[in-house]
Amino acid sequence: MQLAPLYQQDREQAIQEGIEQGIEQGKHQEGISLILRLLTRKLGQISLKSRQTIEELSVEKLENLAEALLDFDNESDLINWLES
Protein backbone atom coordinates (compact mmCIF):
# COMPACT_ATOMS: atom_id res chain seq x y z
CA MET A 1 0.00 0.00 0.00
CA GLN A 2 1.32 3.43 -1.02
CA LEU A 3 1.11 6.23 1.54
CA ALA A 4 -0.11 9.67 0.47
CA PRO A 5 2.92 11.90 -0.29
CA LEU A 6 2.07 14.44 2.41
CA TYR A 7 1.59 11.73 5.03
CA GLN A 8 4.84 10.06 3.97
CA GLN A 9 6.70 13.40 4.26
CA ASP A 10 5.22 14.04 7.74
CA ARG A 11 6.13 10.53 8.81
CA GLU A 12 9.72 10.87 7.58
CA GLN A 13 10.05 14.25 9.30
CA ALA A 14 8.73 12.80 12.57
CA ILE A 15 11.21 9.93 12.34
CA GLN A 16 14.08 12.34 11.68
CA GLU A 17 13.06 14.54 14.61
CA GLY A 18 12.89 11.47 16.84
CA ILE A 19 16.37 10.43 15.79
CA GLU A 20 17.75 13.92 16.45
CA GLN A 21 16.07 14.05 19.85
CA GLY A 22 17.54 10.66 20.73
CA ILE A 23 21.01 11.81 19.73
CA GLU A 24 20.68 14.94 21.89
CA GLN A 25 19.48 12.90 24.86
CA GLY A 26 22.42 10.56 24.39
CA LYS A 27 24.88 13.48 24.33
CA HIS A 28 23.29 14.90 27.47
CA GLN A 29 23.49 11.59 29.33
CA GLU A 30 27.08 11.04 28.23
CA GLY A 31 27.99 14.56 29.37
CA ILE A 32 26.45 13.94 32.78
CA SER A 33 28.28 10.64 33.11
CA LEU A 34 31.63 12.18 32.18
CA ILE A 35 31.22 15.14 34.54
CA LEU A 36 30.28 12.87 37.43
CA ARG A 37 33.29 10.64 36.78
CA LEU A 38 35.63 13.63 36.64
CA LEU A 39 34.19 15.16 39.80
CA THR A 40 34.44 11.86 41.68
CA ARG A 41 38.05 11.46 40.62
CA LYS A 42 38.93 15.03 41.58
CA LEU A 43 36.85 15.49 44.75
CA GLY A 44 35.93 11.99 45.88
CA GLN A 45 32.32 10.97 46.44
CA ILE A 46 29.90 13.86 45.98
CA SER A 47 26.53 14.28 47.64
CA LEU A 48 23.32 12.96 46.14
CA LYS A 49 21.93 16.50 46.05
CA SER A 50 24.89 17.71 43.96
CA ARG A 51 24.52 14.71 41.63
CA GLN A 52 20.82 15.44 41.14
CA THR A 53 21.50 19.10 40.42
CA ILE A 54 24.15 18.17 37.85
CA GLU A 55 21.75 15.75 36.15
CA GLU A 56 19.32 18.64 35.60
CA LEU A 57 21.87 20.92 33.90
CA SER A 58 21.60 21.76 30.22
CA VAL A 59 24.32 20.64 27.82
CA GLU A 60 25.70 24.19 27.76
CA LYS A 61 25.94 24.33 31.56
CA LEU A 62 27.55 20.88 31.63
CA GLU A 63 30.22 22.18 29.26
CA ASN A 64 30.80 25.16 31.53
CA LEU A 65 31.03 22.86 34.55
CA ALA A 66 33.57 20.69 32.74
CA GLU A 67 35.88 23.71 32.53
CA ALA A 68 35.14 25.04 36.00
CA LEU A 69 35.73 21.73 37.80
CA LEU A 70 39.41 21.96 36.96
CA ASP A 71 39.67 24.71 39.58
CA PHE A 72 37.66 22.94 42.31
CA ASP A 73 39.45 21.82 45.46
CA ASN A 74 36.45 20.40 47.34
CA GLU A 75 32.72 19.88 47.08
CA SER A 76 32.08 23.34 48.52
CA ASP A 77 33.56 24.79 45.32
CA LEU A 78 31.17 22.63 43.30
CA ILE A 79 28.19 23.65 45.42
CA ASN A 80 29.09 27.34 45.08
CA TRP A 81 29.34 26.94 41.32
CA LEU A 82 26.01 25.12 41.12
CA GLU A 83 24.29 27.82 43.20
CA SER A 84 25.66 30.70 41.11
Could you walk me through the main structural features you see in this protein, from its secondary elements to its overall organization?
There is one protein chain. The protein is mainly alpha-helical. The chain is built from 4 helices and no strands. The protein has helices at 5-43, 48-55, 59-68, 75-83. Helix 1 packs parallel to helix 3 (59-68). The chain is rod-shaped. The chain starts with a helix and ends with a helix. The model has no long low-confidence stretch (mean pLDDT 90).
Rg result: 19 Å
> DSSP strand (E) fraction?
under 5%
The SSE string, one letter per element, is: HHHH
Oligomer category: single chain
> Major sheet: size, sense and barrel closure?
none
Q: Could you tell me the number of beta strands?
A: 0
Number of helices: 4
Helix content, binned percent? over 70%
User: What is the overall shape?
Assistant: rod-shaped
Q: List segments where confidence is low: pLDDT < 50 over at least 5 consecutive residues.
A: none
Termini separation (Å)? 57 Å
What's the pLDDT, averaged over the residues?
90
Class by alpha and beta content: mainly alpha
Per-chain topology:
Layout: H1 5-43, H2 48-55, H3 59-68, H4 75-83
